[in-house]
Design brief:
The protein has 489 residues and is an alpha/beta fold. The protein is built from 19 helices and 14 strands. The protein is globular, with a radius of gyration of 26 Å.
Length: 489
């Protein structure tokens, strides 16, 4: 179905046309008419498939921008997602007199209070900051028409029910409630019933929880080999934009520092950064000033950035949902993407669990060999030289260059050039280790191993482990990293 077929304000259609949005995504096609019809919904669809537009378009169509009242409140689990939605409101409501305020932590409460006094139609924010304003009686929700929980599973799952209830209790009974997320469980659906009497479930089941246009792989290795493996893949893949996920803030900081030390253009985002720092980081990433973002799971939700080609799970997440949201940063809007997960042998059961819950095969891969790496680095070096040659003023340093050639020789000068432009001192890098994810084997998995299919999986895993041990024993004489003081390998 085309957006032009929707019976919504012409200003919205004009903005969508300018954004080159022609065909609706499945979740939009199924949800928008139902929301326009005044019904509560639970919308479930894979990440990156247009859920934000599914609730923004009907909401912007039905709001009375002249009422001087808050008619919509959108609640998110993270600051990044709230700011992303605010950006989408600006684009979709470009030709409408829409006023909105973003209520998130890390920003001045006083400034937010001033904006609330300007009578916005829409409030977007995180649970904590919204409740801060409610307790301070700065936020009036008595005229709200739309109550939206985006990434609802994350908020309900993490025990924020009391915070959600505090907002819910301030809302009029005749408002619409719209819950959207990529994943739902029976527990979440049960909790959802506490905040709305009836609803229509809209689930785009034809799309896998993890997009089929993302090539997903895992590579088995020891903890101490992860960084050298990462640099090899970065040198060969040359991602336009990539996100590397670590499990902890310490890991993200160490990894970012190591990448910069080796000459890669990277920056880091995690929960210890204030809002100004986060904005600076994301601006650099969006503008391609740097092409690698190292992140904890704070960045797994809400980051909708065009052109992310690769996701590297330096550490596996404990929760399958986090894996889904992590790799969903690439392969968005029907584009292709690539994801790698670095795992230890003990984490193979977790990979099997992810495969089982997502219905997607994650392929075992070997690390690129030295010949592939040398070819990639040679090409990269040639590209750098050709790029500099285009801007070179050969007469500027001609006399000095001739003197150096006479004194040292062409081969020596070329070798230094290779060293300066192409050498990455990975051998000097040592990272603090992180323990692997462990999964308890369930009864169904044990019984499956007794059958043919289970036996094949078991044998395949065992053979993979053998190949890894054999490979590591061959490479044991060529260590790349210094030994880490942390014994978690």
């Amino acid at each position: 179905m085309k957006f032009s077929e929707l019976k919504v304000r012409k200003e919205i259609l004009k903005a969508l046309d300018e954004m080159k949005f022609k065909e609706m995504m499945p979740i939009q096609e199924k949800s928008i008419p139902v929301i326009l019809d005044g019904k509560n919904i639970i919308g479930e669809a894979a990440t990156g498939t247009g859920k934000t537009g599914a609730f923004l378009i009907p909401m912007l169509n039905n709001i009375d921008f002249n009422s001087g009242k808050i008619e919509s409140i959108i609640v998110t689990p993270t600051r990044e997602l709230a700011l992303q939605i605010a950006s989408e409101i600006s684009k979709t409501g470009k030709y409408l007199p829409v006023q909105y305020v973003t209520l998130v932590g890390g920003m001045s409460i006083e400034e937010q209070s001033k904006k609330l006094k300007q009578k916005p139609s829409i409030v977007i924010g995180t649970l904590g900051r919204i409740n801060d304003h409610l307790r301070g009686r700065r936020l009036d929700l008595s005229h709200v028409k739309y109550f939206v929980l985006d990434e609802a599973d994350e908020m309900l799952k993490e025990g924020f029910k009391e915070d959600i209830t505090a907002i819910h209790d301030r809302l009029p009974s005749d408002r619409q409630t719209l819950l959207f997320s990529a994943t739902y469980t029976k527990t979440i659906l049960k909790l959802s019933e506490d905040i709305m009497d009836s609803y229509e479930m809209i689930s785009v089941k034809s799309e896998k929880q993890t997009s089929s246009n993302i090539e997903q792989s895992y590579i088995i290795m020891k903890e101490k080999n992860k960084f050298s493996a990462l640099t090899k893949l970065l040198d060969i893949d040359k991602p336009e934009l990539a996100i590397i996920f670590g499990r902890t803030k310490r890991r993200a900081d160490e990894l970012n520092d190591a990448l910069n030390k080796c000459g890669y253009k990277s920056t880091c985002i995690h929960g210890d950064l204030n809002q100004s720092q986060r904005n600076t980081v994301m601006k650099k990433f969006r503008n391609h000033e740097i092409n690698i973002l190292v992140a904890t799971d704070v960045a797994a939700r809400g980051l909708d950035i065009d052109g992310i080609t690769h996701v590297y799970n330096f550490d596996l997440p404990q929760e399958v949902e986090f894996y889904i949201h992590r790799i969903g940063r690439t392969g968005r809007a029907n584009k292709t993407g690539i994801s790698y997960s670095f795992i230890k042998e003990s984490e193979l059961p977790h990979i099997r669990k992810i495969e089982k819950e997502t219905g997607v095969t994650i392929t075992n891969k070997e690390l690129p060999n030295n010949e592939e790496l040398m070819l990639a680095r040679k090409k990269d070096l040639i590209d750098k030289i050709e790029h500099r040659m285009q801007k070179l003023d050969i007469n500027k340093n001609k006399e000095l260059a001739e003197t150096l050639l006479d004194e040292f020789g062409e081969l020596e000068i070329a070798s230094i050039l290779v060293d300066v432009l192409g050498n990455k001192k990975v051998q000097d890098i040592s990272l603090t280790g992180e323990p692997g994810v462990r999964v308890k084997a369930d009864k169904s998995a044990k019984s499956e191993k007794s059958g043919n299919r289970g036996r094949r999986n078991y044998v395949a895993d065992r053979n993979i482990k053998k190949r890894v041990r054999k490979r590591d024993s061959k490479r044991s004489g060529n260590k790349i990293h210094k030994k880490s003081g942390n014994r978690n390998n």
